[in-house]
Amino acid sequence: MNNDTNLTEGIALSSMVHALVNDLGWIPHSLESIAEKLNELGISDNEIIDTLVDSKKSIQNSLIILSNQLKFFRTLQNLEDTETSFIQVNPVIQECLKSFVENKKLNRQDVFKLNLAKNLPSVKINKQALILSLSNLIDNAVQAIRDKTDNAQIEIKSYLEGDFVVIDVVDNGVGIPQELREKIFNVGLSTKASGHGLGLWLSRNLMTKYGASLSFISNKRKTIFRIQLIKGELTKINSKKRKVLIVEDELQWQRIIRKSLIENEFEVYSATEIENAISLIKAENFDVALLDLNLGKGINGLEIARIVREYNPEALIMMISAFIDVTSMKEAFDIGVDNFISKGDISITGLLSQIDEGLLK
User: Fold this and answer.
1) DSSP state, 79?
2) N or C: which end of the chain has fewer CB within 10 A?
3) pLDDT greater than 60 at residue 280
4) Residue range 117-127: average pLDDT?
5) With contact defined as beta carbons under 8 Å apart, do 225 and 250 qualify?
């Protein structure tokens, strides 16, 4: 593939990659068999043996790269069958971060910092394309700080800039070498030994395909990869009298959320005490549960989340908290919580959009 290869051509080439993987798959085993046979015959020429071992390692590495490329091409094929829709970017960012936490792709989870603007308009894009592109950028950031021993940080920001909703993925790693900057989006370019060289190429092509853009700024102190998405219109909530449970000990927050949900034709139940919440959970079949993470008196909202998941396996569970830390997020996702909402970023419009999107899954 050359640098002008587009997504359609990439999909067409997937069958060639698949054939290459099949054709090369037998070679490492054959080289190993030759080395064993030479040893049985008493031939101990170190140069020949070393050449066979090096060849085996080289081909195995090539197979890993080709296999990763094939996975990307198959992802492209799946994306071809999905449509664009109006979405909120903050839940997508949280979903991507959730994947990194759950899959333990970075041991030092405290390096992640979220700085998400509230009241952002929705954008029209293929959601899976945005998830894939953003995940690639986060993965690159993780690689950039992996060997950094002090003050490593990855910041993910969202904000409104003119007619664009912007997502920045910022790392304080070593930066992109000057000689690679002009070709960083080229197909096949990778700084990792087993890299497939498709991540950034694919991310930029996907964003371009759906009317967005991907760019970067890099120096020796930090690198910023920036996705710019044209702002769209908000989707209209169609609640069909869905049942919502609010468990929140701050009455002002509870009243604001309750009032807005009722105005949007949800059937709303609320509680401030854990005992009342449990009684409601056992009595009603809730579609949505909005749970405060810290209910005071030493009560953790995650305890209620466990009970909701037990009695309402299909319910959409969203945690609300003034402070969101990665440790709590991991525990929540293990329980089955679907999303987190920061009280500092909360907006009724954004909340309704997230509920709407969650119920459609």
Assistant:
1) H
2) C
3) yes
4) 87
5) no
